[in-house]
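User: For documentation purposes, I need each entry recorded in a consistent format: the amino acid sequence on its own, followed directly by the corresponding structure tokens. There are two entries in this batch. Please keep commentary to a minimum and don't merge the entries.

Assistant: Recorded as requested. Entry 1:
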Amino acid sequence: MKFADRADAGRVLARALRRFEWTDPLVLGLARGGVPVAHEVALALGAELDVAVARKIGAPGRPEFGVGAVTADGEPIFDARTLAYLGVSVADLAGVVEEERREARRRLAVYRAGRPVLAGRDVLVVDDGLATGVTARAALREARQGDPRRLVLAVPVGAAEAVRDLSAVADLVVCPRERIDFRSVGRFYRRFDQTTDAEVLALLEQHRHH
């Protein structure tokens, strides 16, 4: 069963999330691909929508292979097992880390009108899928610093191992389609184009006037 696109995935996820009671919910879409999913969730829950930005740190020569992640502020997170397997050290990645941190800062500057208040609220970090979970882990760690009442990771589809790992980081992980045979997020979507800055801004704008 593939999702038609991210909006479809968001509606499936929203149905799973409506079973819970929420306190002043704030939905943070992981920019960029998580935002169209988060948009549907925020509409269904009558929640505020904002963005979270965490950038994947790719392996040398294989940028699509995530070995870590970094947010605009804070230390990068690395997957020690993957680094050991590839024979790569943290020092080898210093240049990539700085580059991705700059891009994270650029995106926040573009997307955010101000910083949303997280304290005392149910905060839902939403992405379009969970493969290794390293970017979600970085986003959750940053959101935790805002002292939310409850910190939730919500994804329409995810690798079973990553869902299990992140259950130790978030207070709750909601994933309607957990898969052992994961491989990549894109294979669970019929349409999986890159989400653009313009699309993210349009969705955020829609909520600011909702």
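Entry 2:
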Amino acid sequence: MKSVPVRCPVCSREHTYAAPAYPCPCGAPTAPPLLPGAPAVQVVRRTWDEDWVTVRCTACDRRDQWPQPELCCPCGTLLRIPVRPMDEPAAPPGPAAPAHIPLPRTAAHPRPTFRPRTIRTGHDAVSAAALYLTWLGYREVARPRTRPAGGIDLRATGLVAQVDATTRPVELRAVECLWLNALGASAAGVFFSLAGYVAEARARADGIGLPLFVMDLDGTPQPVNSPADELVSTGA
């Protein structure tokens, strides 16, 4: 799939993005066609209607709903990547960018490519986060039988994690509550969100070393602060 340049309207950081491909029921890899030259749009508040696009399979002509391509800038801004209208002619194919988070070249044992799970519900979001934590190397990742009042959605050996699947950015209080729960359990904490984090929450997470991730609807978490970058690089 062809990659396109993406500029963050908040911090002006430049990115290169390629939409991840998923198999059509016919078996052909299919991805939303990106619109080169169109500016990325900051996602302030999610609406489910805007989070899906209609994509036509070039092999069988089937039309299905696919996750709207999104990218999380390291500054914490969630960006929606414009997609070419379904009936507009496609651009010539080009090289694809990796659909996973690459490890540093110095990593001794690179992990295999992360295989995401499409998010359509809050339950899917928790499942996607569990898959990602397992990919990072955490063992026995599971949901508590009953969700504690503190909001812990996942536990693993030496880890507690929270997954916010709402359409509002995570507030400071939620980050601090997860941190306190992690301290009480003598474990590390990791936060996943679909809608990002307010500035105060990101600043607090940086100060206490709490990894923050944003997930797009294809189920691929992206690190949004230095502790998350370090976790991706080193693994569990």
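Summary note for entry 2:
The CA atoms of residues 42 and 77 lie 7 Å apart.
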